[in-house]
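Hi R.,

Here's the chain you asked about this morning:
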Amino acid sequence: MSYSARVADLSRRAAFFVDRILKGTKAADLPIEQPTKFELLINLKTARVLGLNLPPTLLALADEVIE
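And the predicted structure, written out as C-alpha cells:
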C-alpha cells in the first residue's frame, strides 16, 4: 500500500524548475512547493500473500488496485 504524491506531477514540476535554472534563475529564488494531488495504491496480491484482509471500502477508495 502506498499513499504518496503523484509521480507524474512531481516530474512535471521538476522539469519546470530545471528549465528555470537553465535560463539563469538562482535556485534560492525559486518557490518551495508542496504537492496538491496524492494517490492511494494497493497491491492486493501482496496483501493476500501477507494474509491481510482489506475492507472493500478501502479498496473502493484506492486510485489503483494491483491484483
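The chain is about 40% helix and 20% strand.

Let me know if you need anything else.
M.
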